[in-house]
Amino acid sequence: MQHDADTSQSLLERVKNQADGSSWRDFFDLYQPLLVRFARSRGLTKADADDVAQDCMVVLSKKMRSFDYARSKGKFRNFIFTLACNAITDMFRRRRPRAARTGEISSFEQSQDEWLSDWDRAWLREHLQYAMKRVEVQFSPQTMTAFQMQVIEENPVEEVCRRLDLTPDQVYKAKSRVTLRMRAELKRLVGDVL
Amino acid sequence: MDCPSSTDLQRYTTGLLSSKMQSDIEQHLKHCTACENQLNQILSENAFLDQARSALQKSIPDETIEVTKPSGTGGFAQQFPNIQGYNIIQVVGQGGMGIVYEAIQAKLDRRVALKVLPAILGGPNSDAVARFRREATAAAKLHHTNIIPVYDYGESRDGCYYAMELIDGDPLDTIIKRLSTIDVTEASPVRIAEILLSKSIDGSAQNNTTTEISPQQSAEQPQTRQDQWTDRSNSTTRRGKVYYQHVARWIADVASALEYSHKGGIIHRDIKPSNLILSRDGRLMVADFGLAMQPDEKTITVTGSLLGTVRYMSPEQAMAKRLRIDHRTDIWSLGATLYELLTFEPAFSGIDQKEVLAKIITTEPRPPGKLHPSVPRDLETICLKCLEKSTDARYNTAGDLQADLNRYIEDLPIIAQPPGLVTKIARFIRRNRATSVAIISTILILTITSIAISYRNTQQSERIEHLYKEATIAVTEQNWHTADTAIDELFELEPESAKAIFFKAWSRYNRANHADPARAAELLAEADELCKQARKIDPDMVSGLNTHGIVLKKLDRFPEAIQAYERAKNINPEYYPLWVNLATVYALNHDLDQCEEALITATNLAISQEKEMGVDFKNQKPQAVQAWRNLASLQLHLGKPDAIHTINAAIQWNRTDASSYLIRAKILLHLKDNIDHEEALYQARSANDRTQQPDPRINRILALAHLRNENHDAAIEHAYDALTLGDFPAFNHLIIAIASAQKGDLVSARNRIKQAEKNWPKDLTDAKFRVTAPAGVLWFDSAGQLEALRAKAGNLLPEG
Question: What is the domain partition of chain A in residue ranges?
Answer without folding.
Answer: 1-126, 138-194
